[in-house]
Amino acid sequence: MTQFSLSEKPLDLAGIGFGPSNIGLAIALEEQAERSGRALDTAYFDRQVSYSWHGGTLVQQSDLQISFLKDLVTLRNPQSPYSFVNYLHRKERLIDFINIGTFYPCRMEFNDYLCWVASHFSDACRYGTEVVRVEPVADRSGVISMLDVVTRGPDGIERVRRTRSLVVGTGGTPRIPALFAGLKDDPRVFHHADYVRRIATQPCAAGTPMRIALVGGGQSAAEAFIDLNDSFPSVRADMILRSAVLRPADDTPFVNEIFAPAYTDVMFNLPEDERAQLIRDYHNTNYSVVDAELIDRIYGILYRQKVSGVQRHGFLCRRQIEAVASDGAGIALTLRDLSNGVLEEIRYDAVVLATGYERNSHRRLLEPLGDLTGDLRVDRDYRVSTDPKLTAPVFIQGFCEETHGLSDTLLSVLPVRAAEIAAALYRDLAPADGRSRRQSGPTGLVAGALNR
């Protein structure tokens, strides 16, 4: 059953997802509204019942891998009341954080920072609401200046909200290898994205001995390994990876310049083949790599096993999973040693898939628009290039790595990208009658706004 909300005035902007990208956009739109005296009527839809940033991965030992200065605003507006430094001040932890002497807060704290910022825009976000699809609305002449956003709430009823523009910022979707697709309902096999919740339901949480496989050789697998070692003494964990070693992330200063906002122009203006080559050249800055300090910790754990003569964990490098079978006794993985071709079957009590993320959710959501959006190529300002009949602007955030660079999926360019999209929206949509309609939560100019 679908309920239409067409008695409501169409939104100026509908945002799908309310993660860091669209929170950053909400801030940038608020700044635009303050400068112009005109605010866009905006609503965001997020399927989470409350805000959380990678909540399923927030183990105690997990630290942010980029500077806290790359928060939602500082690179664009250091004076913003939504900065990480102001968050620390409001939480009365600024001196304590300074005493730690780091640029890299734990992810648990950065999640709390994002929750704090999101709370100031709670009036604009419809939590617990999943966007099912986006449909075109054509007038008699065939021009599509409106879109219908079809949502589904906890009651299962589909509702429709009409909008003049759209921003999709739904993030990554856990990548499940084909061999494990048939076990998606098996509670013993789960993606790292849901690690915290799912590991708490395993027998090891009550101290029962378990042998657990960690599939993958990146940061997620490394963090899960450390957590299993430190938090679950009854667990024997095997890291299973195709490569020969854990590769360190290259975060040296010259290389890090590719994540600067100014580099987006460099990337976008290159020929397509040169863009692809740059992404390959710098792949080890972001994918299938591990923080060097974490590598040292893991190596130290494995070395102490050799010293003690008691092998608890395994490091199974150059292994390819050839087959997966499950029964009441566990999950059997058939591994091929890529060094000699020898096959070995090992039975595990649980398997954690630290196999990364796909970024294609925007394609599913926009599929009803068909040929109007073509192959979802974007302009420099992140607007999808569309058929001229579609005049309602559609923007995407976090899905433009091929054209805008490796930083597109990260926090590094988020504040500047948000301002670019906000400026584009105001060029197309800002009301011309000088109306002032606050789109969401308070700013630092409102008394008491940031005392939460």
Short characterization:
With 452 residues, the protein is an alpha/beta fold. It contains 13 helices and 19 strands.
Describe the secondary-structure layout.
Elements: E1 2-4, E2 13-16, H1 20-36, E3 42-46, H2 84-90, H3 94-100, H4 107-119, E4 125-127, E5 130-138, E6 144-152, E7 158-163, E8 166-168, E9 173-174, E10 189-191, H5 195-199, E11 210-215, H6 219-231, E12 235-240, H7 253-256, H8 263-268, H9 272-281, H10 292-308, E13 314-316, E14 319-327, E15 330-337, E16 343-348, E17 350-353, E18 357-358, H11 361-366, E19 394-396, H12 401-404, H13 414-429
Parallel strand pairs: 1-7, 2-3, 2-8, 3-4, 8-19, 10-17, 11-12, 11-17, 12-13
Antiparallel strand pairs: 5-6, 6-7, 9-18, 14-15, 15-16
Architecture overview:
The protein has 452 residues and is an alpha/beta fold. The protein folds into 2 domains: 2-172 and 359-429, FAD/NAD(P)-binding domain (3-Layer(bba) Sandwich), CATH 3.50.50.60; 175-249 and 287-353, FAD/NAD(P)-binding domain (3-Layer(bba) Sandwich). Helices cover 28% and strands 21% of the residues. It has helices spanning 20-36, 84-90, 94-100, 107-119, 195-199, 219-231, 253-256, 263-268, 272-281, 292-308, 361-366, 401-404, 414-429; strands at residues 2-4, 13-16, 42-46, 125-127, 130-138, 144-152, 158-163, 166-168, 173-174, 189-191, 210-215, 235-240, 314-316, 319-327, 330-337, 343-348, 350-353, 357-358, 394-396. α1 (20-36) crosses α13 (414-429) and α6 packs across α10 (292-308). The longest helix is centred in the N-terminal third of the chain and has 17 residues, at 20-36. One of its GO terms (biological process) is intracellular iron ion homeostasis. InterPro entries: FAD/NAD-bd_sf (IPR036188), Lys/Orn_oxygenase (IPR025700). Its cofactor is FAD. This is Ornithine monooxygenase.
